[in-house]
TrEMBL record:
Transmembrane segments: none annotated. Keywords: Oxidoreductase. It comes from Peptidiphaga gingivicola. This is Short-chain dehydrogenase/reductase. The keyword Cell cycle does not apply. Belongs to the short-chain dehydrogenases/reductases (SDR) family. The lineage of its organism: Bacteria, Bacillati, Actinomycetota, Actinomycetes, Actinomycetales. One of its GO terms (molecular function) is oxidoreductase activity.
Amino acid sequence: AVKAVDKKAILITGASSGMGFEAAKELASQGHSVYGAARRVERMAQLTEYGVHTIELDVTDEEACKDAVGRVVAERGRIDVLVNNAGYGSYGAIEDVEIDEARRQFDVNVFGLAALTKAALPHMRERRSGTIVNVSSMGGRLVSFMGGWYHATKYAVEALSDALRMEAAEFGIDVVLIEPGGIKTEWADIAADHLAESSKGGAYEQTAVKTAEGMRRQYSGKMMSDPDVVVRAISRAVNAKRPRPR
Ligand code: NDP
């Protein structure tokens, strides 16, 4: 367990499933004060057994994002770490994907992350210390077939993270990007569902259906990692000793 002095107040989104769920569990087990956020609170019930505080949060609701950060600060006196992990992939051919769906993906993956970050920064600046961990993807650097909009969101996450790292450095705030490869979670099924659905009756249907099947096969196979590799990366970012700011 971490020493009392190294105990961090952490808010992590996407804690109802996959890597966010596992990371919340691990960080709480290490002795940190962890707040797990997601829409499906019932899916986070098991986390409370590990001492994780759960917050019902849709990251597309900017006021709710402010409230979530506000709750951590009210209860812990600070927010040391924000882990922006909530996200999803809505795969589909560019011609097929409705602009509303593309926009929604940006709302979750990019603007949700931005809203939480904006809410956390003043508190971190005030204490001249803090870490923002953004879960991007290998797909923040290269694209996969029919994943155009997903990759567009993750490329955006990379750009914002790199820009913020420079801006926030003088306040003792660090920005860490995590770029996982394929991880066995619910992510691939959700992406494949969107892909099959968006192509129905259209020119790309046959290719899309084959691609979706391929994704499901690939993500249930041996090539994909378990969430623990990402949990380790998040844990390293949380527990890293950083030089004091100027
Ligand atoms: P999961 O689908 O298992 O988990 C996604 C989490 O995001 C859920 O807890 C979900 O909670 C949350 N979420 C989705 N939409 C919203 C929303 N509107 N508001 C709040 N929370 C939301 O996937 P992973 O664990 O794999 O994904 C975690 C992150 O890792 C994502 O950003 C994903 O893009 C990224 N990633 C995944 C990879 C993989 O191969 N699995 C590879 C690289 C990156 P709820 O639905 O309850 O709100």
